[in-house]
Structures are given as structure tokens and as C-alpha cells.
Design a protein that fits this description.
Blueprint: H1 2-12, E1 18-23, H2 36-41, H3 45-59, E2 65-70, H4 78-92, E3 99-102, E4 105-107, H5 114-125, E5 130-139, H6 147-165, E6 170-175, H7 185-188, H8 206-217, E7 229-230, E8 236-237, E9 260-261, E10 266-267, E11 303-305, E12 310-312, H9 316-321, E13 325-327, E14 338-342, E15 345-348
Parallel strand pairs: 1-2, 2-3, 3-5, 4-5, 5-6
Antiparallel strand pairs: 7-8, 9-10, 11-15, 12-13, 14-15
């Protein structure tokens, strides 16, 4: 375990913002889940994993943040309390953890309120932990959803984002995935789904504008602006489009699936450049898109080319203007050169 963590963290260096060092170590009742690490080492494997990860980061003078990630800790209860105690145990081994990931997989109409989620975060932020909402989706248990169902999903999404915006140490949100075509839910929960901000045909759901409005409002409740969206069944839900205010908050918001790594395994989700198919709604609002900043040279080990080489174009303006992606860096910082590994991947070596 020490070798795996050390080699992995050192290999990627500061190219990673953070690592999920340990993922889903707890059962719903707060006990430890059984895996090879727990069976062989015992409960100490968790603080030891963070100790090894911190040592690896310190070995190259990095600033990479280290997180524990889990589900069903987004509201007060037994598992939330157990997770707070787990963080306290990790801290007893040294300053080896920086934050906690709230996976935030919810069911429409059963998601915790914003106040409940804020209360759940408070136990961790009291320990100085950053919070990331890492895998947000809100699934329907019965398909297809009605207009009322879509409105409830939008409210559940907005409450989740509002909780983060109201918590200073909540640093950002990540959805899982951003459109229904690539969602994990239909393969895991038969007959359920439509959990993401976009339909499979890449048209927006009311939840998209609810999230946008919650971010702009900075956490306070605000009216939701909705757009016309077309479900995969081709049934059209027609709603009123209103102009949206200018962004005023700078909290980091990542509306894309990201790569995470754990002491148990490394799991990654690749983002794919979507084909824009959204029909422009009837509106007199004029939208101005802010140009992307110049792409910097890639660092050692980083990707510098390949078919479909795109990177997230992350900003509030880009999110609402549908300019989610830009071409990734194709030059390397000196003394590294871009070397093709295969048609889909080139690396600075």
C-alpha cells in the first residue's frame, strides 16, 4: 500500500490538485467496510494511507490536497458522525488530511435540504477540513419524469449547490456525469436514471438553470430561470426563458466528471467533447462570451496531444455559454518535448 501510494503520488506530482486517498471506507452503520486493506492491516490502514500520501507530497515539495471521500455523509446521522471521528483519527497521526468529499448521490424528492447538508458539513469544517461535493447526481426512480418531477429535481440540485455556497470551506462541486448518456445509474439501478443536468441529447434540464441561479445567488435562495429542453423521447417541455444575472461569486465550480484516486484503486472518468445540439430559445437577451485565456505550456508527464485532446474551459461564463472545452496544451515546458505514445495520447517527456 505504501509503495502504491508513494509511486502514484510522486508520478503525477503537482499535476493533480488533490487525491482521494481513501474512498468509501465506512458502511452505512459507521463500521468499517471489509476489504483487503482492512482485513490485513485493520482500521489503521486509513490514517496510514494518509500518512504515506502526505510523505509522498512532501518529497517533491508539492501542495496537493488529500481527501477522504464517501457517500451518505451529506446529512446528519450515524455515518456522518463516524466519518467525522475517522477524520479525527487521521489527524491524530499528524496533519495528513485536507478535506472530505461528499459524493452527493441523491434520489429526487429524498435529497437533504440545504440546511441539513450545511449541518453535515459543519462537523468537518470545525476540524479545518475543506469540503468538495464530488459526484452530484439526483436520480428518478420512475421514468419518464413529469414536469413536476423535473421541477423537484431542479430544487434538489439547487439545495445541494446552495449548501456549498453557504459554507466558506466548501471549495467546489462536481457532477457525475454531466449528461444522461454516460450516467452510471441505469446500469446500477434498473429502470432508474435521468439524474444529470443534461438529457442524453445534450439539451438542458431545468436543473441546469437551478444550479446556475444558485451559484449566481451566492447561496441565498433565488428564482430559477428555465430553458426549453427536449427529452430523449422527443417530448418537449416548454417553459419561459428569462435573462440571468452577471456572475458575482468566484467559488470554484467544476461541472465535469473528474479523475480521482484512492488507496484501494485509481478510478478515472474521461470527459468527452459534446456536440452542441441545443436549440436556441426565443429570447431577446444578448450573450457575450469571454475569450479563454492562452493555454500554458504543459509540465513534465502531462498530456500534450492526441486525437480528441480537449481540456475543461472552466468558468461560470463558459458554463452558461456552452463553451465547455478548449484545445489542450500542445507544447511542453523546457526541457521537455512532446512525444507521441499512440494516436490518442502524447506526453511531455
Amino acid at each position: 500500500m505504501e509503495n502504491h501510494i508513494t509511486k502514484t503520488v510522486q508520478h503525477y506530482g503537482d499535476n493533480c490538485y488533490s487525491w482521494d486517498v481513501v474512498n468509501e471506507a465506512l458502511n452505512q452503520d459507521g463500521s468499517f467496510s471489509s476489504d483487503i486493506f482492512y482485513q490485513t492491516i485493520g482500521a489503521a490502514y486509513v490514517p496510514l494511507a494518509f500518512q504515506y500520501a502526505r510523505a509522498a507530497v512532501n518529497s517533491f515539495g508539492g501542495s496537493v490536497k488529500l481527501f477522504y471521500n464517501d457517500h451518505n455523509i451529506e446529512y446528519p446521522g450515524t455515518k456522518n458522525i463516524a466519518a467525522v471521528q475517522l477524520v479525527e483519527t487521521i489527524l491524530s497521526y499528524g496533519d495528513n488530511i485536507d478535506g472530505v468529499g461528499f459524493e452527493s448521490h441523491f434520489i429526487v424528492g429524498e435529497a437533504p435540504s440545504a440546511a441539513s447538508q450545511e449541518q453535515a458539513m459543519a462537523g468537518f469544517t470545525a476540524l479545518g477540513m475543506d469540503i468538495h461535493q464530488t459526484e452530484i447526481d439526483v436520480r428518478f426512480q420512475t421514468l419518464p419524469p413529469s414536469d413536476a418531477d423535473l421541477a423537484q429535481q431542479a430544487s434538489d440540485y439547487a439545495n445541494t449547490v446552495e449548501a456549498c455556497m453557504n459554507t466558506p470551506l466548501c471549495r467546489g462541486m462536481t457532477v457525475w456525469d454531466f449528461d444522461d448518456k454516460y450516467s452510471w445509474i441505469p446500469q446500477t439501478f434498473s429502470g432508474q436514471g435521468d439524474a444529470d443536468l443534461y438529457w442524453a441529447n445534450l439539451t438542458r434540464k431545468p436543473a441546469f438553470d437551478a444550479v446556475y441561479s444558485a451559484i449566481i445567488a451566492g447561496g441565498s435562495s433565488a428564482p430559477t430561470s428555465t430553458t426549453t429542453s427536449v427529452a430523449p423521447s422527443s417530448a418537449t417541455s416548454t417553459t419561459t426563458t428569462t435573462s440571468l444575472p452577471t456572475p458575482s461569486r468566484s467559488k470554484t465550480t467544476t461541472m465535469l466528471a473528474t479523475t480521482t484516486a484512492t488507496a484501494k484503486n485509481i478510478k478515472s472518468t474521461k470527459t468527452t467533447k459534446p456536440t452542441k445540439t441545443t436549440k436556441a430559445p426565443e429570447t431577446t437577451t444578448t450573450t457575450t462570451t469571454t475569450p479563454s485565456a492562452p493555454t500554458p505550456a504543459q509540465t513534465h508527464w502531462g498530456q500534450c496531444g492526441g486525437q480528441g485532446w480537449w481540456v475543461p474551459n472552466i468558468s461560470i461564463e463558459a458554463m452558461h455559454a456552452d463553451t465547455y472545452f478548449r484545445t489542450g496544451p500542445t507544447t511542453c515546458a523546457s526541457p521537455w518535448t512532446c512525444q507521441e505514445q499512440n494516436p490518442y495520447y502524447s506526453q511531455c517527456l
